[in-house]
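Please, why this fold?
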Amino acid sequence: MSRVGHGLSNEVYAAQGRPRIQAPAVHLYELCLLGRWYREALEGEGDGGPPDQLLRQLENVLRRARAASSSPPRRAVTPA
């Protein structure tokens, strides 16, 4: 399977007959995942990394989510 960064590309996902993954769903998933890792790091558990690094990652995801929500929605390109 094709991967983009740490995830599957939308093209591969769509080729399997699944709906496109929208950015808000990805942002929510990332926020939940990083939030858990950050909490675990503060409690001295987990291996997600040091709390300050995880906090910066959380801030970056929040920034991307805000930017995506303030920009006009993208239209899906459908083949002719």
Notes: The chain has a mean pLDDT of 77. The first helix runs from residue 10 to 15. The chain is about 60% helix and 5% strand. The two ends are 25 Å apart (CA to CA).
